[in-house]
Amino acid sequence: MSTISAAAAAKTIQINQLHKSYTGQAGTEPHYIIKGVDLVVKGGEFFVLLGPSGCGKSTLLNIIAGFVAKTEGKLTIDGEEISRPGRDRAMVFQQADASLFPWLTVRENVEFGLKMKKTPKAERREVSDHYIGLVGLKGHENKFPRELSGGMKQRVQLARVLALNSSILLMDEPFGALDAMTRRTMQKELIRIWQQTGKTVIFVTHDLQEALLLGQRIGVMSVGPASRISDIHEVPLSYPRELSDPRFHELYETIQRHFDE
Ligand SMILES: Nc1ncnc2c1ncn2[C@@H]1O[C@H](COP(=O)(O)OP(=O)(O)OP(=O)(O)O)[C@@H](O)[C@H]1O
């Protein structure tokens, strides 16, 4: 069966009393970045992690990815405790440049992970055609990253991650470096791709508008240190969401007020 048709089932992430601290010099108290994070993200959900700069969003995402070790607490995926990276999770970073190989074409970048997995050439081609099309890059297969705009590079990164067929997408401010118009287009496309692929998504942002455009639920992290998820807001709006929707504006005001208190 091809990688496209064998779509991985969405997975549930459960976090209980997660702490992350760094120790300083001998004899000093540990410095808690996050302390007491509790969270359940259901399989197939689009969950947004929102919080001010430096509160520990990336730290939490990196712990879920298995890139950073937790200090205490429990982290399970479909009931199985995890502590290292796995094929069930894939990360999309803010800087697409840093994650693409400049000497490989769009197609070669998208196929890279599959090549590492020794996927046969014909299947690699089928998968890369599918995801290059899905992210709107058809016709650009033979270009190199230097020939692409920032938005296009981010699409390549997304296609490469999608081609790996992980059931969980971890996204760390992936559109933070894009101009406003490209960012809006990418947000819409991401929702379309999420709806088509049924993946579990955890999307980190410090932008409330972006959080409300994307998330089914928004977890707000408190100001660090020793940050935790202090509130979870359900977003009862269907997709695609429009900034001009008065209900969007109302929700924005409600959550913003909460920040100001
Ligand atoms: N290896 C480390 N050792 C010590 N402190 C660290 C380490 N990594 C991160 N920190 C600290 O943890 C805190 C949270 O960082 P993190 O990058 O998770 O925040 P963030 O909410 O993602 O911020 P931003 O939105 O600015 O990216 C920061 O104060 C940072 O300095």
Structure overview:
This protein has helices spanning 57-65, 96-99, 106-116, 121-134, 150-163, 180-197, 208-214, 246-260; strands spanning 13-22, 31-41, 46-50, 72-77, 80-81, 89-92, 168-172, 200-205, 217-221, 229-234. It has 261 residues and is α/β, with parallel strands linked by helices. It has two domains: 1-23 and 36-88 and 168-176 and 185-261, Rossmann fold (3-Layer(aba) Sandwich), CATH 3.40.50.300; 90-165, no CATH class. Helix 3 packs parallel to helix 5 (150-163). The protein is globular and about 55 Å long. The termini are far apart. Adenosine-5'-triphosphate is lined by residues 22, 33, 51, 53-59, 206, 224.
Helix and strand topology:
Elements: E1 13-22, E2 31-41, E3 46-50, H1 57-65, E4 72-77, E5 80-81, E6 89-92, H2 96-99, H3 106-116, H4 121-134, H5 150-163, E7 168-172, H6 180-197, E8 200-205, H7 208-214, E9 217-221, E10 229-234, H8 246-260
Helix pairs in contact: 3-4, 3-5, 4-5, 7-8
Pfam families: ABC_tran (PF00005)
Domain ABC transporter: 13-248
InterPro entries: AAA+_ATPase (IPR003593), ABC_transporter-like_ATP-bd (IPR003439), ABC_transporter-like_CS (IPR017871), ABC_transporter_ATP-bind (IPR050166), P-loop_NTPase (IPR027417)
Largest sheet: 6 strands, mixed
* H/E element sequence: EEEHEEEHHHHEHEHEEH
CATH architect. name of the largest domain:
3-Layer(aba) Sandwich
What is the CATH fold-level name of the largest domain? Rossmann fold
Cα-atom radius of gyration = 19 Å
